[in-house]
Amino acid sequence: MTVKRRSVPARQDGRATRWAGQRERRRREFVDAALKAITEHGPHVSTQQIADRAGVPRTRLYRHFNGKADLAAAIAERVIEQVVVELDPVWNPRGTPMEMIELAVRTHVAWMAEHAAIYQYVINIGGEAGASAYHDVKVAVSGHIAALFREYLHASGGDTTAAEPAAYGLVGFVDAATTRWLEHPDEQTREELVRKLVDWAWLLISDTAAKSGLELDPHQRLPTPKELRAQHATR
Amino acid sequence: MTVKRRSVPARQDGRATRWAGQRERRRREFVDAALKAITEHGPHVSTQQIADRAGVPRTRLYRHFNGKADLAAAIAERVIEQVVVELDPVWNPRGTPMEMIELAVRTHVAWMAEHAAIYQYVINIGGEAGASAYHDVKVAVSGHIAALFREYLHASGGDTTAAEPAAYGLVGFVDAATTRWLEHPDEQTREELVRKLVDWAWLLISDTAAKSGLELDPHQRLPTPKELRAQHATR
DNA sequence: TCTAAGTGTGACCCGAAGTAACGCTAACCA
DNA sequence: TGGTTAGCGTTACTTCGGGTCACACTTAGA
Fold it and tell me: Which nt is closest to the CA of A66, judged by C1'?
């Protein structure tokens, strides 16, 4: 029996369309509440504490999240969104290499110092709850930096296999050094720490670039990969 | 009333002395079993799985450990013992700076590659179980390296506040870069990774040393701090 | 024969995550 | 106006892993 098929329904049931986007809205609200609960109670926050903060019964969380792991993943996504925005001048290079490095290091140290509980949640506890690797903040940030490195190494004919270890390593470096500093803040000021980290990062980046024939000036605007390719071709 | 006091009991009850050292023996056995259970079941090993491996009822564990956190601490201590032994040529400097750096990097990468579950347990899960910071393997290793850096920086009149961030940062660097490599082992060989890590570590160490007036030769035996102090005094 | 210290067994408790049924509310539709 | 749709709060319940405890047993020593 032939049924006439419409590409779209003529008119939809208002009882259904009334709730359009509700799931997404609720998930955002619960993530907002979760971030506050983590800040208030620490990274070992319970689902009960998150629900209390959201003003709903705990069982309601399971209507919008497929378990605590799903919620942890959503929290990590939110943090990634924020960090990616803050580091836009690094992904879409603007300014000098030194300015970009300084922004990246400061942003990382700031996140660790000013959002300690949230940072620890997404880096450790959230991961333990089972969030997939692609939600991991460290991996996201390191991946972005690695992509930038690879692009420049490739444009100057260098060894692109250095991109990943350098990027991941640098993020790990800043992370570990800052963790230590947060546990012993009297050893030096935050500015002194940042200064050292920036210097070391520059040292490593400039040396890696030099090895691929790319002489970077720390205080001159970073050339675009296109400019580099043109420059590399004329040798 | 005066009581005659003996410095030691004349003769001890054999029923008590029979069990001397038993608690320590049992703890070592249970840690041995735990390491095997972690290797077999992964870092999220349960106390039931550890007890099964030890061949005892689960409740027996609580007679020798003050909870899972205490067991995790004992496991971390065991790993620290082994790593500290393997890195003795670094703590008690023998050989050239390059040889020492290479040994440290290789040992770290080997631990991560060949004892993945144990490494992940002591770095993450074990920590989460509540083990005190001083049992943390990373802190232990980084602390050793920092002490070595501080000693040399001090002997050459340099800025000793660079010791901690450099040491902790370098361990974090190798850790993060190797974690990435383990997830994508086809990007380069382990040898290529190690080579890069050693080069970067040398770069950073030599630059930090140079800034404090200490010119290191990567392939000459590392001078002792005493030799450095004598050398520094004659300037 | 009694005692000391360790042992295995089994029962039980607790907290946290997760599931499900039920009745309610508000808006929409025929 | 009554029925329907979708989300909501309440309550009860299950599962799991960590942790505690009492009891009987074993072995050696006094």
Answer: C18
Distance between CA atoms of residues B231 and B235, nearest Å: 7
The pLDDT score that the predictor gives to residue A127 is 62
Within-domain flag for B2: no
pLDDT of residue A222: 86
Residues whose CB falls within 8 Å of the CB of residue B172, separated by 6 or more in sequence, listed in order: A172, A173, A174, A175, A176, A177, A179, B138
Q: Please state which of the ranges A36-45, A66-75, A163-172, B129-138 shows the lowest mean pLDDT.
A: B129-138
Cβ contacts of B185 within 8 Å, gap of 6 or more = none
Q: How does pLDDT run across B97-120, given as a tens digit for each residue?
A: 999 999 999 999 999 999 999 998
Q: Would the pLDDT of A172 be above 90?
A: yes
CA of B124: which chain A residue's CA is closest? A124
Looking at the fold, whether B107 and B147 belong to one and the same domain comes out as yes
Is A32 exposed, middle or buried (CB count within 10 Å of its CB: 0-12, 13-18, 19+)? middle
Q: Are residue B83 and residue B122 in the same domain, yes or no?
A: yes
Domain of A61, CATH number, reads: 1.10.10.60
Is B32 in the same domain as B130?
no
ipTM: 0.87
Answer whether A134 touches B (CB < 8 Å).
Answer: no
Instruction: Please tell me which of the candidates A133, A176, A187 has its beta carbon nearest to residue B161.
Output: A187
Residue B14 is assigned to a structural domain of this protein: no
To the nearest whole number, what is the mean pLDDT of chain A?
88
A177 to B172: CB separation less than 8 angstroms, yes or no: yes
Count of domains for chain B: 2
* Cβ contact A19 with chain D strand, < 7 A: yes
